[in-house]
Amino acid sequence: MWEQLSHYFEILDERRKARYLSADLDELLEKSLALASPCRLCERKCKVRRLEGEVGFCGAPPKLLISSEFLHYGEEPFFVPSHTIFFMGCNFRCVYCQNWTISQWFEDGIEISPGELARVIKLRRREGARNVNLVGGEPTPYLPWIIQLLKELRQLRVNLPIIWNSNFYMSKQSLAILKEIIDVWLPDFKYGNDSCAIWLSSAPNYVEIVTRNLKAAKGEMVIRHLVLPNHLECCSFPVLRWIARNRKDAIVNVMDQYTPHYLVLREEKFAMLRRRLDPGEFRKVVELARELGLCLVE
Question: Which end of the chain, N or C, is less packed with Cβ atoms under 10 Å?
């Protein structure tokens, strides 16, 4: 299955067009701006007036603010080289976040206009980028400005698939917009229950919201699951079983690269996560994924 996804990127320029090239971007921009004030872009629905400069839970401003952009060679093999754009801020508070300086605003970020970023994307395309990989932090709070970016890309006649690399905690309304412009979904499916989601990411109603969005986001999808120490029975196993029942068409990347970061190293209540993953733990998760017949990134 994942060989087919790799082929998808190879033939895009010749026989397929990225979804945004045929979308009604003016209408989608209008809808997304309405969602930004009062803000209902993600399921937190802070309802702050983003367009007037009010800041919600994510901390994102009413403009494009990124930490970095580059050709990424460390993503799944069928994506690389992937033009990865890291947006500032996040609607989660993951205590082990490896990008915590980005997600929790320990960096100032770099302001860039949609037109400027579009020109950078065109340059990266010439350098070999096979896609545009929108990540963070979390890209959802920037949806209106991302649509403005896509309008600029269309003017520059750039035909690159758009990857939505997200925690998948967006609102139904945002997802409806994204379905018109996103070519490949790259969601994180972190937790198998709401207790762990609240404790480790401050994300209420996590399972209901993320599984709803996973079901609704039709098309090419690669689900990432980061295996956490001591979280097999409560998280990894339920996540894999849900995927097997509901999204067996998706490619699954079971990841073993957990490393203690951020609050895990500072607060004693997270001491159970203050170690690397045991190889035996990872092996058990992979064995279950294979028993369930999931298509794994090897």
Answer: C
Residue pLDDT, tens place only, 58-68: 999 999 999 99
Closest CA to 136 of 59, 251, 53: 59
Count CB-CB contacts under 10 A for residue 121.
21
pLDDT recorded at residue 10 = 62
Question: Mind giving me the DSSP string for 134-192?
Answer: EESS-SGGGHHHHHHHHHHHHHTT---PEEEEE---B-HHHHHHHTTT-SEEEEB---S
Mean pLDDT of 232-238: 98
Q: Hey, which residues does 145 pair with through a beta bridge? A: none
Amino acid at 26: D
Please report where in the chains the tokens 């400027």 appear, as a residue.
Answer: 116
H helix or E strand, kind and range, residue 219:
none
| CATH 3.20.20.70 corresponds to the domain 2-296 | yes
Positive or negative CA dihedral for 197, 201, 204, 210? Answer: negative
The predicted-structure confidence for 181-220, as pLDDT tens digits, reads as follows: 999 999 999 999 999 999 999 999 999 999 999 999 988 9
Q: Residue 74: pLDDT above 90?
A: yes
Q: How many whole angstroms separate alpha carbon 160 and alpha carbon 163?
A: 10
